[in-house]
Design a protein that fits this description.
Keywords: Cytoplasm, Dioxygenase, Iron, Isomerase, Lipid metabolism, Metal-binding, Oxidoreductase
Number of strands: 17
Pfam families: Lipoxygenase (PF00305), PLAT (PF01477)
Mean pLDDT: 88
GO molecular function, one term: isomerase activity
Radius of gyration: 28 Å
Cofactor: Fe cation
Largest sheet: 5 strands, antiparallel
InterPro entries: LipOase, LipOase_C, LipOase_C_sf, LipOase_CS, LipOase_Fe_BS, LipOase_mml, PLAT/LH2_dom, PLAT/LH2_dom_sf
């Protein structure tokens, strides 16, 4: 008689355990064991429990190939969910399809992917959008009834890469409901859900009790805006409130605000922005001229061309307005970036004056506020939601659909997809839906959002996606005090080193990448669904070498984690003082100078209820709830081989050093930049 020891670990999450009966079957090259119930005295599968069992067979099974788990209702009780964190039989290996030759194993890989492709379905949200998961709400996820069949590798001790549903390294057939219902990597934990509610309810209730959420009309005084969230001030939000009018701070936000990706260095002025030296000479001062500064690489442009034809919307029954400004900035000898000129349209002419720092204070402030409104629209819709949320959803979907649980790239990417499908599903149900929050607070509404995102994706390139390439292409590598760039490049390098080691371990050469049909299907599906098969995007549709794979994976992980933190976490800090980030404008862009007053300025800004609804959203999305997993944190041990584990430890050490460097630098800054401090970066797009 042969006796096999089976060690079962139940996840430590709330409600991870089960009262159902669990059975196991081992399958080897020489036969399979009888179906055996796993049962000890007391409750076997409580949250966090680790139990050992013996599986007895009449003869040895040979090389172990599969492990099947069966879950059946206990007595009269209803079936519940179970998060099986790990089952250990012997040591594992993650494997690509090229390393599996037995027909049984290949069949299991195929059947696993077929089951998941049926469960995780693509859907077109709107023309020109990346593909999304085909669910109308998260409740539909939970009601979907599926079962899963995984792939195995011989003799495995493997962390449960997909949550309670699968056992990487062994196949599991679980005849119970809903892959998605059981999946803690996708579904918000009770801790996170509760935390979100506790963040949202007090702030919204406070505004409601003071009548702010229902109050229409203009703000009477700028100072009244300070009182919206009196108890939720931060060092940065207070700094913004004090310095928002200053040209130096206006320029600073292009480097270290929530949208630090807009600037391009100019060698010559575009014809659509006819700025002359005489216009800007008072700012440049003696000893230089505009042409000289262009030649030195000190002139930069923020161009909001994408807003030129965006549809506009009505708020509180009134038509809103949008501008498509051009903002020219100068890097002065003191190393500060300051605005030189602002034109509020893409077409120069007598009705589109070029506003200058030498104009009246109110004219110049209004012109800068129009630029900040354009910043809001481009940042929220494209930089933030399109380029992190929606693209990361497409990456998550392709990973779930095309890579089996035992695949090393699946194990590498899974932690960076945590909660992304749910948060996007919630966003579509509450923010992007008709008459949702986008329709209530922005000057372009949902129709403008659809236009802006589809246009943005049509112009998005692989160069934009890869931080080092983007910085180089925009000509911003030499700007001083660009903390987003400096911190981002360090984190990119740390991710790249980690990914290189993982890829090098599993893919020794070009052939191993080219012949991995699952990997090629994965990248092909991303190309088709995320970037709509657009060749001009420069995104790969096929990977031919380990180097190409490393770059693509590095960019995906960076954008799912660090980039999202950079463009999301500061929204409350920079937006709670509404004039710094107005979501709508109620008067058209000025066509003449000398007409702006405090009253006309207040009548252009969003109304009271619009302001408060938007600030409430800023507060909610900037407060990362509990249940965080910072970048490089992998509590579910998907990799258990020694080499990947050493790589993970080295990655964590490198991130810790980056954090120490950032905190040391921040001690000397008037306004610290902490959005890319690794402990504050979530592994995935989860809020």
């Amino acid at each position: 008689m042969a006796v096999y020891c089976v060690r079962v670990t139940t996840g430590s999450y709330l409600m991870a355990g089960t009262l159902d009966n669990i059975f196991v079957t081992l399958v080897g090259t020489c036969g399979e064991s009888p179906k055996q119930r796993l049962d000890r005295l007391g409750r076997d599968f409580a949250p966090g429990s680790v139990q050992k069992y013996k599986v007895r067979c009449s003869a040895e099974l040979g090389e172990l190939l599969l492990l099947r788990l069966h879950k059946e209702r206990y007595a009269f009780l209803s079936t519940d969910s179970w998060y099986c964190s790990r089952i250990r039989v012997t040591a594992p290996d993650a494997r690509t399809i090229c390393q599996d030759s037995l027909p049984l194993l290949l069949d299991h890989r195929k059947r696993e992917l077929q089951a998941r492709q049926e469960c995780y379905r693509w859907k077109v949200y709107a023309p020109g959008f990346p593909g999304i998961i085909d669910v109308r709400s998260f409740e539909e996820m939970e009601s979907d009834k599926k079962f899963a069949l995984t792939k195995t590798t011989p003799c495995a001790d493997q962390g449960n890469s997909s949550g309670n549903r699968y056992l990487p390294g062994f196949p599991m057939k679980i005849d119970i409901p809903s892959l998605l219902y059981m999946e803690p990597n996708i579904r918000y934990s009770a801790t996170k859900t509760t935390s979100l509610l506790f963040n949202a309810i007090p702030a919204s209730l406070g505004m409601k009790l003071r009548g702010l959420l229902d109050r229409k009309g203009s703000w009477k005084r700028l100072g009244d805006i300070r009182n919206i969230l009196r108890c939720h001030k931060t060092i940065t939000s207070e700094y913004v409130t004090e310095h928002w009018r200053e040209d130096h701070f206006f320029g600073y936000q292009y480097l270290n605000g929530v949208n630090p990706v807009m600037l391009h260095c100019l060698s010559s002025l575009p014809s659509k922005l006819p700025v002359t030296h005489d216009m800007v000479a008072p700012v440049l001062g003696p000893g230089t001229c505009l042409q000289t500064e262009l030649e030195k690489g000190n002139i930069f442009l923020a161009d909001y061309w994408i807003l030129a034809e965006v549809p506009v919307h009505c708020l509180n029954g009134r038509t809103q307005y949008v501008a498509a400004p051009l903002c020219l900035l100068w890097l002065n000898p003191q190393g500060a970036l300051v605005p030189l000129a602002i034109q509020l349209s893409q077409t120069p002419g007598p009705n589109s004056p070029i506003f200058l720092p030498t104009d009246s204070d109110w004219d110049w402030l209004l012109a800068k506020t129009w630029v900040r409104n354009s910043e809001f629209l481009v940042h929220e819709n494209n930089t933030h939601f399109l380029c992190t949320h929606l693209l990361c959803e497409a990456f998550a979907m392709a990973t779930l659909r095309q890579l089996p649980l035992c695949h090393p790239i699946y194990k590498l990417l899974l932690p960076h997809t945590r909660y992304t499908l749910q948060v996007n599903t919630i966003a579509r149900a509450t923010l992007l839906n008709p008459e949702g929050l986008v329709d209530k607070v922005t000057s372009i509404g949902r129709q403008g959002l659809l236009y802006l995102m589809s246009t943005g994706l049509a112009h998005f390139t692989y160069t934009n996606f890869c931080l080092p390439d983007s910085l180089r292409a925009r000509g911003v590598l030499a700007i001083p005090n660009y903390h987003y760039r400096d911190d981002g490049l360090k984190i990119w390098a740390a991710i790249e080193s980690f990914v290189s080691e993982i890829v090098g371990y599993y893919y020794p050469g070009d052939t191993s990448v080219q012949q991995d049909s699952e990997l090629q299907a994965w990248v092909g599906e991303i190309f088709a669904q995320a970037f709509l098969g657009r060749e001009s995007s420069g995104f790969p549709r096929r990977l031919c070498s380990p180097g190409e794979l490393v770059k693509f994976l590095t960019a995906i992980i960076f954008n799912c984690s660090a980039q999202h933190a950079a463009v999301n976490s500061g929204q409350h800090d920079f937006g709670v003082w509404m004039p710094n980030a107005p979501s709508s404008m109620r008067q058209p862009p000025p066509q003449t100078k000398g007409t702006t007053t405090l009253k006309s300025y207040l009548d252009t800004l969003p109304e009271v209820n619009t302001t408060c609804n938007n600030i409430l959203l800023f507060w909610l999305v900037s407060q990362e709830p509990k249940d965080q997993r910072p970048l490089g944190t992998y509590p579910d041990e998907h990799f258990t081989e020694d080499a990947p584990r050493r790589s993970i430890a080295a990655f964590q050490n490198r991130l810790a050093q980056i954090s120490r460097d950032i905190r040391e630098r921040n001690r000397g800054l008037e306004l610290p930049y902490a959005y890319l401090d690794p402990p504050l970066i979530e592994n995935s797009v989860s809020i």
